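Entry 14. Ran structure prediction on the chain below.
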Amino acid sequence: MRRLVCLAAVFTALSATPGCAAPDPVIVRQADPAARAIQPVAPPRDGLPSDAVEVRVLRAHNAERATVGAPALIWDEGLEREARVWAQHLIDTGTFAHDPAQHGHGENLWTGWGERRWTPEEMVGEWIAEKTQYRHAVFPAVSRTGDWTVVGHYSQLVWSRTTHVGCAVVRRGDRSVLACRYSPPGNIDGFRAY
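Output, structure tokens:
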């Protein structure tokens, strides 16, 4: 079976994800230190996931967060809408890159190609699998490799100061995209994930 999975994470600044090639060139902007401030956003609204897939994505997040003592995430419909728009854009354009718009949220992305349907648990599980390289330390020194981007999805997923999440899965043909948005964002310099 042909399988290719790419993962990407963005937090307070855009960054390239090693080993993940996008179909089109990806422009990576270096963050201006002054631009690292988080943009104010409207307070999240509590809601329920829109369908069974998103319910399973939320459960997978919260099950892993429980293992490290992080509080359960609350579903946010606004974040879900943003995630769905971006996931649909990635499917429509055949690209894989972070949303360049400044939303003030964290973002985890997953994409997979193949003849079978990926389960929500498998998608989120790819992010959770990064914990084998994770070390509990002050960000950005959170990776056993010295490169925080190899554990950035996992650290965002378990970031205890993140309270709300909204995710969407979009499929077309043999490609699936999962996009999750987090508020407030994780992976903040000088803090621990939990």
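DSSP finds four helices and five strands in the chain. Will compare against last week's run tomorrow.
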